[in-house]
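Shift notes (night). Ran HAD-IA family hydrolase while the centrifuge was going.
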Amino acid sequence: MDLTKFQALSFDCYGTLIDWETGIAAVLSPWAREQGLDLTDEELLLAYADQEAAVEASTPSALYPDVLAAAFRRTGADLGREVSEEWAQRLGSSVPDWPAFPDSADALARLAARYQLIILSNVHRAGFAGSNRQLRGDFAAIITAEDVGAYKPAENHFRALDKKLGELGVERSGLLHVAQSLFHDHVPAKREGLPSVWINRRRDKPGWGATPRPSGEFSYDLEFGSMGEFADAVDKAF
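Came back to this:
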């Protein structure tokens, strides 16, 4: 792939730029200990993943903090334990505290010198604003689930993206999508005919973590283990 032919990059944020698994586990793990559950962080994330996707599909207009809280309650019920309102709200309000991957801010700064950057995220506006205080990203556009009334892999983000590309003067052929989640991003990217880069943050870990198993056909054009590796490849290409 010729990385110099693109004018814009669209990014998933959580899992790609922000370490959402560490952020979620920071709440699930102490709750599990309190409940007497002997489960690893990986086991808790696996139990949680499908619950969040199910809540997003059934209540697409819900704000992300409410999705997190509802998914936590469902996870608890599936594990035979109750999740109190206090614990549910603790997860719901935790998004701004989720850490950025160490390479994200530097990679974004380097990529912004080459491309227009667009966020395409399953989160609410306030949550992303909190995350961007860590990322310090210079984004030409930010499209959230709150803006489009749905959650990826639904098409709403991508219809809003098409409109935004027109406003930015970028042809669809000049866009490259960059994301970690095969389920949320690479399945719809294939559906939409978008070239994509897989940031495989879980390259050294087994299983799917907090992300559900892909529910449809997916593809990607390039794979990197981190945003830093991707930015290095871009710098080399240019």
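The CA atoms of residues 46 and 209 lie 5 Å apart. DSSP finds ten helices and six strands in the chain.
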